[in-house]
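Something for you to look into today, if you have time. I want to see for myself how the chain folds. Leave the record below and I will have a look.
***
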Amino acid sequence: MSRNHLFLIYFLLFLAIGLGTWAIWKSPIEKGNNENLLDERSYPVQAFTITRDSIRLFDIPKKLDFAGEKVPLEKGDIFERLEREIYVNAYWESNMILLLKRSAKYLPEIERMLKENGIPDDFKYVAIAESALMNVGSPAGARGFWQILESTGKEYGLEITNNVDERYHFEKSTLAAAKYFKKAHAKFGDWTAVAASYNMGQSGFSKRQEEQLHSNYYELYLNEETSRYLFRILAFKIIFENPGAFGYHFRESDYYQTPVLRTIRVDEDIKDLPKWAKDQGSSYKDLKLYNPWLRDRNLNVKRGKSYEILLPE
């Protein structure tokens, strides 16, 4: 076989490979269209092209305060820390949607109780940062909306026994948190320090102030969690007060609502809560849903004491 024939064969071979590669690259999608990446019969997932326009930057406020106290956004590290928490939370869409929908059930009542106890309205965002407005528990033993430790709960008047844990009681735990905030403010003198101390403890925050010769939260070098803590609260404040600016648009009917509840006063032991709930025309599920502070299947009532149990009308 001559050299010219070999050259022709190699040329045709490379041409065939090139055309095949182009065909694979060209199909099933072309740049700029929205066709499926794979045949729907084999893998029914719709694909789409992501462009830079899909991700947008937000206009961060130039001025901001927490509980009436200025946030020094003119400092580069402060602005960056705030921006971090805004983007982390604003683009965690599933969590933010549920937070906004859930907030209608609880924030109005939290606002009322904070106001009645002389606590700035911004502290409602502490509950969001602590628990996402859910009765959760932590490995450290903190419980409820406000993530109160057992020792702290008892210090502020909450009952914590085998069958009652008022850290899970929405109203009583909120009042306990308000008492904590008021006491901490008497100690530190500013609300920003109060919020920070709620995360790391009053003694821990005081120790950092003494060690670093600064009392201002924004001037302290703190552990990662507390360093981010207030900025998470501020991020929630900004997003909740301007949801539309971050792409969250809700109708009134989109928010979750608590049904109308009736109050039953109990001053005697209940040996079987599921049966008791059924006798009230309700269910054990509703009993636990609206009274999460009931921690067992029975309720022991001390002489002279009574409890208020909520059930749907």
User: Anything to note?
Assistant: The chain has three domains: 3-54, 65-254, 261-312. Strands lie at 65-66, 69-70, 261-266, 307-312.
